[in-house]
Specification:
By secondary structure, the protein is mainly alpha-helical. The chain has one domain (8-332). Helices cover 78% and strands 0% of the residues. α1 (8-39) packs parallel to α9 and α1 packs parallel to α11 (282-297). The longest helix has 41 residues, at 170-210. It starts with 7 loop residues before the first helix and ends with a helix. It is found in: Membrane.
Length: 337
């Protein structure tokens, strides 16, 4: 397999594109961290994004780099991931993020990036033999498992807290869980920063590895971790208001107790996935949590038509971003090299 070695300015340019993706990831997925806390009016939007951005940034202090290693070594053969493939992958992921961001569709930035890697690698080699099917299978399983786990955990939490506060007045419950949502939103933002930022960390890591900056062993430098966490936090500050509206009010009408349960269920799912090194979608996870919390009250409270549209977007994200990445590769490769 040929290895493309590039000069420092072009390497810096591609890293900057990766950080731009990280920012769009933060902006696109800000809704995941703040939709419930905004829709229940616990925090105003401008304060909610600052709260989420802070915990996005410090997430690297709490988690290892299992997900980054999965992205760096577990989706495509690292030997294939030259700058052209990485640039194609980022192009596909960014373009798909912008399409779904503009449309207010809560799709997965993580799966867009994974689809981009697949599309770029296949466009370069013309074969699927360079794909690491074990890692792709693990990621594909996450499309189903993470929202289901979020759904089930949210329902369990709803049952538990409903039983605990059965003798409390609705006003007292709302007041207590308004404070509780600050905690659950912080936990979810930690999970978001811990899982999602690691995708870009892995992309930059694989780029540096392909250029010989890591020797013979793949590893992640600390400076890469810090700049990626900072970029995601900055993107979260930009917000994603169209998606906040979809997540916070179109799926179901949330009360503070439901918001707390949805966020807590999502955070538990993300913590588990990050520990196992599975690059799941924070979008899928919180959507499952919101649907679970709504359905625990009554099944009809969930707008299943909206939910079906969201789920369709989940399944087309990887193939759509892969196609866009392949086209980006074919267009940009002759221009830059």
């Amino acid at each position: 397999m040929d290895t493309m070695i590039i000069g420092t300015p072009l390497l810096v340019f591609i890293i900057a594109i990766a950080l731009a993706f990280d920012m769009t990831n933060g902006a696109h997925d800000a809704a995941n961290s703040i939709a419930t806390v905004v829709s229940t009016r616990v925090l105003k939007p401008q304060y909610a994004v600052v709260w989420a951005a802070f915990f996005n940034f410090i997430a690297f202090l709490f988690f290892g780099l299992h997900v980054a290693n999965t992205i760096g070594k577990g989706i495509i053969d690292p030997a294939v991931a030259d700058p052209r493939v990485v640039l194609g992958a980022l192009g596909g992921a960014i373009f798909w993020n912008l399409i779904t961001w503009w449309g207010g569709i809560p799709s997965s930035s993580s799966h867009a990036l994974i689809g981009g890697l697949i599309g770029g690698a296949v466009a370069k080699t013309g074969t699927t033999s360079v794909l690491v099917w074990e890692g792709i299978g693990k990621t594909a399983a996450g499309i189903v498992v993470s929202p289901l786990l979020g759904f089930v955990l949210a329902q369990v939490l709803m049952l538990v807290v409903s039983w605990i506060f059965v003798r409390s007045t609705p006003f007292a419950v709302d007041r207590r869980f308004r404070r509780g949502q600050l905690f659950s939103a912080a936990l979810y933002s930690l999970g978001h920063g811990g899982n999602d930022a690691q995708k870009t960390i892995g992309i930059i890591g694989i780029l540096l590895f392909s250029q010989g900056y890591m020797g013979n062993e793949f590893h992640i430098p600390l400076w890469v971790v810090i700049i990626c966490q900072a970029a995601m936090g900055l993107g979260t500050l930009m917000g994603g208001w169209r998606i906040v509206k979809t997540m916070g009010s179109k799926i179901t009408d949330l009360k503070p107790m439901q918001g707390f349960c949805a966020e807590s269920a999502g955070a538990m799912t993300l913590f588990l996935a990050t520990h196992l090194g599975v690059p799941v979608s924070t979008t899928h996870t919180i959507t499952g949590g919101i649907m679970g919390a709504g359905a625990a009250r009554r099944t009809s409270s969930v707008r299943w038509g909206v939910a079906r549209g969201i789920i369709w977007a989940w399944f087309i994200t990887i193939p759509a971003s892969a196609v866009i990445a392949a086209v980006t590769y074919w267009i940009t490769a002759p221009l830059f090299w």
